[in-house]
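Tokens help. One example:
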Amino acid sequence: MTQIGFYFDQTRCTGCYTCAVACKDWHNINAGAVSLLRLTTTEAGEFPHPFVAHLMTACRHCANPPCVSACPEKAIIKRDIDGIVMVDRDKCKGSAECPQLCLKACPWGVPQFGPEPGAKIQKCDLCVERLDQGKQPICVESCPLYALEVGPLEELTKKHQAEVQGTGFSYSTSCKPSIVFRPKE
């Protein structure tokens, strides 16, 4: 199986949020707490050597996703063909009836329930409908600085001489997240 994942170049990202806004727009997600892609900022240092790095957080489409085994309804699945972790919203019982074990299982807090009563689980699916049409996810296409790329993880690692550690990110050897970085150091 080919594992699809993200390459994130932290040296290019300026924290403009274009990827996050494009994601919300593409998926018709209202302004508010739910966001399939989030950005966080790490600040350190002092003048004359300040340091700022941004971290894009979306589903890591782990090789061993803990959310899949945590879901009692089997509403979260991993596609055999490419390793994309997806939600079957028809199987999800929603926030009112669910013990929300998938949220607790994810080390990065990726799965989310909306604020509305009975909300179903949501998370990044790498814009799978776009990938299946040979297109890149909307976050990748919208990035003005070309800081994101999606593809077979092994190819991304070789192409970019990428690392599994990024600034502000802790790699999990048990989950094996499908993201590689050019970290900002």
